[in-house]
Amino acid sequence: MKVSEIFRSIQGEGYWSGRSAVFVRFSGCNLECPWCDTDHSDGLEMDMDEIAELARHRAHHHDNMVVLTGGEPTLQAHSDLLSRLFRRFRLICLETNGTNVPPMFYDAKHDTDYQMGQLWVTVSPKSPTTWRELPGLGYADEIKVVVPGGGWSRAQLAELADVFKEPPTRHLYLQPEDGLEREDAKRWAIGAVMNDPRWRISLQIHKLLGLS
Known about the structure:
Number of strands: 9
Strand content: 15-25%
Mean pLDDT: 86
Shape: globular
CATH architecture: Alpha-Beta Barrel
Helix content: 10-25%
Distance between the termini: 22 Å
Strand order of the largest sheet: 3-1-2-4-5-6-7-8-9
CATH superfamily: Aldolase class I
CATH class: Alpha Beta
Radius of gyration: 17 Å
CATH topology: TIM Barrel
């Protein structure tokens, strides 16, 4: 597996925002998003045991959460890695763009180690044109939609409401694209939440705190 970095920080987004966690950031993705904060040009080849051991080493003794992020972790991570991580962490958060149904979602539920902890799947759809076509969307524990600079059109707002009319989870987040020049994205997200209170706003608080 190609890993960009393994580090400890604060989860700054979505449902688990504010908690300390170990992050395993995979390198490589099947999409190209302009706001992505991962350098996909580099990375270290590591096997599952090395990843699990370094994640364990990075953790504080009270940490019980590890986040698999990227990049797109479903391109590389699978049930064997989950099994190893569950031996140390009670909660594994998988952050995916939803273009794949995570194979480990099925496999891990049949693994004895899985019974010791919880797998939490965050699906972050990237483009309104693909919202209806994401195979991983139905497996989300939370949905986090990044709002780009400029927001979306009225038609796209209507599409958002229609696609998630009966969402697979009640944890729905709109996250404005980061940056001072993105005030328009914040205003759009605020308006959308005020229009549909099922949604909440997610801010990247780790960046507000000056963390990775």
